[in-house]
Amino acid sequence: MFENSLTAILWFCAVGSGLMAGVYFAFSGFIMASFARIETSAGILAMQSINDVILRSAFMPFFFGTSFAAAGVAALALSDLSRSGAVLMASAGVLYFSGMFLCTMFFNVPLNNKLKEADSHSAYGADVWDLYLRQWTRWNHVRTIASALSSTLFFISI
Prior knowledge:
By secondary structure, this protein is an all-alpha fold. It has helices at 2-37, 40-54, 59-79, 86-116, 123-157. The longest helix has 36 residues, at 2-37.
């Protein structure tokens, strides 16, 4: 029974982290570059809208659910490293939780909050946007890589 539950959680983590990798890849690969090419105020307004809509979307249950499931898998694996696949499970869980969840909470969310307060038609707003494009995207690359690698490790551990 326990093994079946663990396998189900591993599948959830593998698929969830893969979905997150895809979302982050889209932003790193072309969305942010597209926003950088349009008028500053339009880019700010578009990203402000995305940041508002995403909080009430299907993204959030996967964001939190996968994060906490990955942390649980890591804790379980670290408690018994002799278990088959434990090192892979621990690596996947720690990488996902730190490289995606903690990165988001400590870097991307504060930048989102700063952008939320920016007036899209002010010089200050333009300065915030320039900083946002560079820093938010840099940290999003970290989330993309961490999520993709974690997904791969979760799949291998299954």
